[in-house]
Amino acid sequence: MRVTLTGLLAALLLIGTGSALAAAPSQTEIDALKRDVEALRAKVMAQSSAAPVRSSVEQVLENKYGPNANVTSRTGKLQFGGLVQVWYYWIQNDENGLFTAGGGAPAPIADTNTCSDNDSFRIRRAELSFKMDIHENVTAFVMIDPATEAASYPRLPIGIKRLNNVSPEFSALAAEGDAPTATDFVKNVQTGGGSVPKLLQDAFINFHGLVPHHDFTVGQYKPTFSEEGFSPSSMLDFVERTLFGDQERDLGFTAHGTWWGNGGGGPYCGGGDNGRLQYWLSIFDGAGNYFGSAGQLRNRSDDNDNKDLLVTLLLRPIWSDDNEGKLELGGSAGWGRHGEGRLNEDLINTPTDPGLNRPRTDARRFSVYGKYFGGCNFRGLWFKSEMLYIRDRNAPQSVIDLLGTGDPATLAQTIGSPMVVRSLYGSVGYKMGEGCCKESKCTFLRALEPCFRYEESDNIWYAVKADPLHTTVDHTRVYTLGLNYYIKGHNAKIQANYNFVRLPNGPRELPFHQVDSDSFIVNFQVMW
């Protein structure tokens, strides 16, 4: 560039010299020539001081792995995400269990709490997710969680289905006339037993942009039955969901429609959640039962030929960041035929018939919820509430029989009649950074969110009547005081919850031991 400038100046000099022989240049022409030279000099200096040109390899690597850039693949666009939740929890010490003998129990029960009241650190979640946009209309999503393989942690009275459970086992006949023998294959189909497939969380394909306002998902994922259960684990207002809030994943197909302020894309892939009117129509395997206690639903064979249907509706009549705030209402209805076997109701508690050993059941479930985020003078304040209704039948040997009329050897109910379980919760919170402390210079106060939750769930089941088919249902109440500290939104936060747990008193013929099971849990979370 310096050579070019020198040549240009020489040419201008020659031209000027030649022109002088003909006529002297005017002052205007001289000034214009000076401006052109200064502009050219500035351009040369800028190029000489710029950073050296990088190689093509450096440019490609920077585009793929540069700061705040998504990792991309040769074909399509691959995004990598993750969630790490580390807990520390403290539990009240009580060596006696709920069914401890001596409280009027008709049969001796070996029930203790010595292994479930130890304080500990825990890796609650370690999710790794991969989202692949292979085509403008096709997205695949896979998520695993190695932390779910852990089996030694106590069943805290939050975020669980059951407090007491007997391992589901039963005998089936190998052939007509043979003595009852245990058949592992039948048991595995019946209960989803064997090595429970917990590692694989989500694995589905989403098709979008093909039908206006709709997208379609097929694979394994969470049904939209419960608003709390469908919410991502990273976005929870409390350390853990309620007793029946964590819905089990299932295998199936879903058609989703979104209207009135559509955000585009599918909700399973992070889009389409802006529509003020949305609906989901789903069909699932529905193996096991809706209680989620007889065996995992994920990545297992269906245990009958029938399929479950689920319909979910979401409506946002008020959805404004200004004065009105945001109001969301929704509900779900699901039904299906569960079970497959040749037993009749008369022989239901003496299973000597081969097969899956579970009578067919007309199962159904319903849920309704509402949530509101305040606007104007109530900005930062939010309310949430949800109610669940589930009717289904338990798998064999999954309910404790305190009279021993079902199976005296194991004190387990062989097969029970259909039963109804109800669950509800209400919660309230206040994000100080969006309300009273929005203009505060104290970043600590702006990051705080106090919250409170009350829940009541029918989570304790047992057989105590002369009729071994009947299952008695009792509920647990939990009062949770919480405080969230948002370091960087939900990407980095610390949550602290104290749970006041109130177990049932039990029927008159069986006073329960009031287990001291309050807990204090701290969750350290990072998400990317």
Question: What does this protein structure show overall?
Answer:
The protein is mainly β and 528 residues long. The chain folds into 2 domains: 2-51; 78-527, Porin, CATH 2.40.160.10. The chain has 6 helices and 20 strands. It has helices at 2-22, 27-49, 56-65, 184-191, 227-230, 443-446; strands at 77-91, 120-135, 138-144, 172-173, 180-181, 200-208, 214-221, 250-259, 277-284, 308-319, 326-338, 361-373, 381-392, 399-401, 412-413, 419-430, 448-463, 472-488, 492-502, 519-527. The strands form 2 sheets. It has a 16-stranded antiparallel beta barrel. A two-stranded antiparallel sheet has the order 4-5. The longest helix is centred in the N-terminal third of the chain and has 23 residues, at 27-49. The model is unreliable at 160-183, 268-272 and 345-355 (pLDDT under 50).
